[in-house]
Structure formats: C-alpha cells, structure tokens
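Subject: Protein record for review, amino acid sequence with backbone structure tokens
Why sent: The fold of this protein is of interest and is recorded here as tokens.
Notation: Tokens come from a learned vocabulary of local backbone shapes, not from coordinates.
Attached in line: The record itself begins immediately under this heading.
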Amino acid sequence: MRRLDVGEFCSMTIMVNLSPEVEALLRDKASQQGQDINSLASELLTSLLEWEVKDSEDAIKGIQQGLNDFEADRFRSFDEFAEEQRRKYNLPADS
C-alpha cells in the first residue's frame, strides 16, 4: 500500500497585495514566458525562499570556518589584510 504525501493533493491559497508596478512586472514576465501568473508567482517565491535558506546556511558555515581557523591560529591581523587589499585593488595607503 502506497502512502500519499499530503502535498500531492493540497495547496494553500493566499492573497498578496502587490503595487501596480510589481503586478505589471509579474504579468509581463508571465506573458513573456507563456506561464500562468499564479504558477510563476509560486515559482518565484519558492526560489526566493530556497535561496534564503541556502544563503543563511552558507553564512553560518563561513562564520564557523572563521571560528575554527581562529581557534587553530590560522588568521592574520587586520593590518595585514588591509595591506593585501590595498595592493590587490591598487588603493592608496592610509594617511
């Protein structure tokens, strides 16, 4: 016997108030892509929410890596970093 995922049969309807400018952009994009405006809005929201989760996870990983490096004495002073950036981007030295 197969179990069914509730998501296979359910959807949630919400109302979102868009400015006329955003609505026009959404309608234009849906028209250009030959898509239903509701499907496009759903896809865009899904993409944004997935990106936000990944972005947060990446930030946490980066912070953890920095903490691990610091604890392992793998770091440099701000002055060393600033000097490298000045050389890399041809920036003037501080006065």
